[in-house]
């Protein structure tokens, strides 16, 4: 990224942070004064999302509503930035192109042209989806706008989807399928050989064979647990970020919360980048053939 | 465990909903953003590569043009060298021809000169021969003038008479002649005069008076003239004959 672009980015982020913080405060005040809604009289942290209603057997939660909103915004953004046959892009197209180009360079730089053909769309969607869901939760109407459930309970109408474990797990499942699928598609049946290491055992080297079998099993478990760590990392970070904002907003209405909005922006972007980057990195590992057993020749 | 998961909010239908949501978003974004973007990137790369290729082609063209120029120069230089060489060769040939012609001319001149020399020599030799003849005759005259004796004279006269007598009869008829002129180197005796008169009568067909004259230039012998018939039995005549024979 060039220096002028970096400066513009920092400038925009700073303005966004202040505006978000002020708007958040105003919204909360408006909600309590005008609508007469008491917003979070005491700090309550609920991990499961609040169910608003059920649609065709699927409970629609406030996080899911937020997720739909974020998705629609993404689609709207790219539709607005629609590519036209222009040599020198401008406006939204320029922004969208710079964003995609940065992501493309990242993926291609790490995975190469061949793998980035299918990795780029997935990694870019991970990044955009996570960052959109994290940032949309900073908008002022998240929290103050409440829904009244049948039980008479007041819950926020919208809640950041990153705080819903279901979204994190869904993303982790996609990432896992992509990583393992790419490994299998590239290496074939041999891909499983790195988890079931029986070569030395078949050669009659009992001790070495046992050790290798064990390490292979451990690698397999690592692969499985990676899904869990993937989802929990995202879920934990975004939930913690929201809770932090909640607490800070409760303690100090305006001045103190400003830097935390900046922190939230950063955390959202970093988590999105980490998730997309890890997916790319794991795919590279999975699609690279083993050079042989580490203990070969001992 | 399921209970604990339930408590942090894990719920399979929701999970599936998120999954579907994500996949739909992925598809939609692929259609409206990634694909056009990738196509655009590819086109841009192609354009850049095309530009590079064009630049390379232009460079190649320039190199080819330079090479061609070089080749043309080389050809021209070669041609010039060939022209110079051929000119040199031609010049040499002409030189050789001129030399040959000069030699031929010189040879011809020499030949002609040699011919002249030969002719001159021949002429000289001729002259010398003539001179020798003359000298010989002169010497002979000188010698004969003193050495011819009477007997020889008589013999010569007799020979002249025999000659006359041997002539054919039709050649002897000179009726119109009034006299016979007899010239002798020395004075004739009466016997000799009688013989000569007989011979003259034989020539004319009748008796003719003799007109006698002495001419020492005849050296020896005599001449008889009757009309237009001349019998020359002089030594002078013989010497003349000798002289002519010597001249070739």
What does this structure look like?
The complex is a heterodimer of chains A (298) and B (248). By secondary structure, chain A is mainly α. Chain A has one domain (3-287). Chain A contains 7 helices and 4 strands, in the order αββααββαααα. Chain A has helices at 3-35, 62-80, 92-136, 165-187, 199-202, 206-251, 257-287, and strands spanning 51-55, 58-61, 146-148, 154-156. In chain A, the strands form 2 sheets. Chain A has a two-stranded antiparallel ribbon with strand order 1-2. The radius of gyration of chain A is 23 Å and the shape is globular. Chain A starts with a helix and ends in an 11-residue tail after the last helix. Chain B is α+β, with helices and mostly antiparallel strands and 248 residues long. Among the domains of chain B are: 2-65; 149-247, no CATH class. In chain B, 75% of the residues lie in helices and 9% in strands. Chain B is built from 5 helices and 4 strands; from the N terminus they run αααβαβββα. Chain B has a 4-stranded mixed β-sheet with strand order 2-1-3-4. In chain B, α4 links the parallel β1 (180-184) and β2. In chain B, α2 (12-147) packs antiparallel against α5 (235-247). Chain B is rod-shaped and about 210 Å long. The mean pLDDT of chain B is 82. The chains are: A mainly alpha (298), B alpha+beta (248).
Computed over alpha carbons, the radius of gyration of chain A is 23 Å
Task: Return the string of H and E elements of chain B.
Answer: HHHEHEEEH
Number of helices of chain B: 5
Could you give the order of strands across the largest sheet of chain B? 2-1-3-4
What fraction of the residues of chain B are assigned to beta strands by DSSP?
A: 5-15%
How far is the N terminus from the C terminus of chain B? 167 Å
What is the β-strand count of chain B? 4
Give me the secondary-structure category of chain A.
mainly alpha
Cα gyration radius of chain B (Å):
69 Å
């Amino acid at each position: 990224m060039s220096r002028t672009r970096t400066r513009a980015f920092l400038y925009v982020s700073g303005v966004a942070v202040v505006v978000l913080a002020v708007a958040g405060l105003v919204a909360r005040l408006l909600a309590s004064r005008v609508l007469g809604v008491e917003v979070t009289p005491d700090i309550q942290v609920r991990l499961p999302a609040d169910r608003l209603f059920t649609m065709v057997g699927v409970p629609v939660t406030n996080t899911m509503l937020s997720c739909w909103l974020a998705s629609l915004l993404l689609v709207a953004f790219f539709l607005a930035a629609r590519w036209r046959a222009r040599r020198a892009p401008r406006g939204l197209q320029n922004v969208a192109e710079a964003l995609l180009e940065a992501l493309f360079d990242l993926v291609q730089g790490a995975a190469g042209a061949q793998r980035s053909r299918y990795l780029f769309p997935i990694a870019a969607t991970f990044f955009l989806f996570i960052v959109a869901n994290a940032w949309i939760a900073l908008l002022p109407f998240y929290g103050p706008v409440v829904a009244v459930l049948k039980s008479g309970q007041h819950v926020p109408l919208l809640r950041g989807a990153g705080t819903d474990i279901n979204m994190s797990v869904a993303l982790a499942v996609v990432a896992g399928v992509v990583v393992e699928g790419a490994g299998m598609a590239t290496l074939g049946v041999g891909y499983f050989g790195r988890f079931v290491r029986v070569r030395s055992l078949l050669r009659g080297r009992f001790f070495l064979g046992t050790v290798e079998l064990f390490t292979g099993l451990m690698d397999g478990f690592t692969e499985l647990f990676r899904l869990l760590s993937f989802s929990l990392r995202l879920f934990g970070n975004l939930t913690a970020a929201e809770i932090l904002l909640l607490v800070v907003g409760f303690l100090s209405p305006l001045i103190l919360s400003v830097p935390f909005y900046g922190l939230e922006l950063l955390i959202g972007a970093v988590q999105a980048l980490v998730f997309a980057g890890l997916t790319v990195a794991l795919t590279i590992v999975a699609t690279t053939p083993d050079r042989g057993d580490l203990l070969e020749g001992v | 465990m399921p209970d604990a998961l339930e408590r942090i909010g894990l719920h399979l239908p929701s999970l599936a909903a998120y999954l579907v949501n994500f996949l739909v978003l992925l598809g939609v974004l692929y259609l409206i953003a990634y694909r056009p973007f990738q196509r655009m990137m590819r086109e841009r790369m192609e354009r850049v590569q095309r530009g590079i290729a064009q630049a390379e082609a232009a460079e190649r063209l320039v190199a080819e043009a330079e090479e061609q120029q070089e080749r043309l120069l080389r050809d021209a230089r070669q041609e010039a060298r060939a022209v110079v060489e051929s000119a040199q060769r031609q010049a040499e040939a002409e030189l050789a021809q001129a030399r040959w012609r000069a030699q031929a001319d010189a040879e011809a001149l020499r030949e002609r000169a040699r011919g002249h020399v030969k002719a001159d020599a021949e002429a000289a030799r001729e002259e010398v021969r003539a001179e020798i003849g003359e000298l010989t005759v002169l010497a002979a005259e000188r010698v004969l003038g003193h050495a011819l004796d009477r007997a020889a004279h008589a013999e010569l006269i007799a020979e002249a008479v025999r000659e006359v007598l041997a002539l054919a009869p039709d050649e002897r008829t000179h009726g119109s002649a009034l006299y016979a002129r007899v010239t002798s180197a020395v004075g004739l005796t009466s016997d000799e005069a009688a013989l000569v008169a007989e011979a003259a009568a034989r020539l004319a067909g009748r008796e003719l008076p003799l007109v006698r004259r002495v001419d020492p230039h005849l050296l020896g012998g005599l001449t008889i003239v009757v009309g237009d018939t001349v019998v020359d039995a002089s030594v002078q005549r013989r010497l003349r004959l000798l002289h002519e024979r010597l001249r070739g």
